[in-house]
Amino acid sequence: MSNPYASQQRSQLENAAPQAAEGWALVETARRLESAKRNPDDSNAILAAVRVNWRIWTIIQSSLVDPECPLPQEVRENLLNLSRFIDRRSAELIATPADVHKLDVLINIDRQIGAGLLGNPADGEEGQQQPAPADSGTGNAQDQASENASETARSSSPSLLSVQEAASPQPTSTTRGSVTSTET
Q1: How far apart are CA 41 and CA 37, in angstroms?
Q2: Which residue ranges does the record annotate as region Disordered (predicted)?
Q3: Contact predicate 156/79, CB 8 Å
Q4: pLDDT per residue over 69-82, tens digit each?
Q5: Residue 52 above 50 pLDDT?
Q6: Which residues are CB-neighbours of 151 under 8 A, at least 6 positions away?
Q7: Residue 16: which pLDDT band, with cuts at 50, 70 and 90?
Q8: Which residues of 38-48 are buried (b: 16+ CB within 10 A; e: fewer)?
Q9: If you average pLDDT over every residue of the chain, what do you get?
Q10: Is residue 46 within 8 Å of 103, Cβ to Cβ?
């Protein structure tokens, strides 16, 4: 038997703007990571959540390196740096899924970026920002870099993967893959 709520949600996502779908994916992934964190003995759930998150960020990376990406160069560079951090953290978690405290920064990043894409407050799904944990291995510089990139991305536009031109009298939107751009 089919879940009517899931069917309705799937229908809404299929008809949503690309940035809304990406925002939903990040918020949903943050929820899955949080759920996996609550069950640290279930390494399969942790690995599955980390792998889904990694796939989503790989899709975002591919949009950012596309020559037709409409984002300003500085925002693209910051987001690519953030995605490289996520790559490293994901690889660490796949190697040692018992280090569930390392999920916190991924959860925060996904919630903040997802909320920005959805047009919600930057605090994300629960309305509270969790502090990033101190990292014993790769150093706090990586966590700080990811926080700086996240803040730059949120403050540069209302959504990460769309561009609004302030001087545009009658903008039109076009969609290329999962990137929506505004053209005059």
Answers
A1: 9
A2: 118-184
A3: no
A4: 888 999 999 999 99
A5: yes
A6: none
A7: low
A8: eeeeebebbee
A9: 73
A10: yes
The residues near 124 (Cβ < 8 Å, ≥ 6 apart) are: 27, 30, 108, 110, 111, 112, 114, 115
pLDDT bracket for residue 100 (50, 70, 90): very high
Give CA separation, 47 vs 36, 38, 100, in Å.
9, 13, 11
Residue with tokens 């403050």: 155
Cα 128 from Cα 103, distance rounded (Å)? 16
Instruction: Please state, in angstroms and rounded to a whole number, the distance separating the CA atoms of residues 77 and 149.
Output: 9
- The two tokens of residue 155 are 């403050």
Cβ contacts of 3 within 8 Å, gap of 6 or more? none
Q: Angle at Cα 86 formed by Cα 62 and Cα 35, nearest 5°?
A: 115
Reduced 3-state DSSP string for the chain: CCCHHHHHHHHHHHCCCHHHHHHHHHHHHHHHHHHHHHCCCCHHHHHHHHHHHHHHHHHHHHHHHCCCCCCCHHHHHHHHHHHHHHHHHHHHHHHCCCCHHHHHHHHHHHHHHHHHHHCCCCCCCCCCCCCCCCCCCCCHHHHHHHHHHHHHHHHHCCCCCCCCCCCCCCCEEEEECCEEEEEC
Q: What confidence tens digit (pLDDT) does each residue in 129-157 have?
A: 433 333 434 445 445 544 554 454 444 43
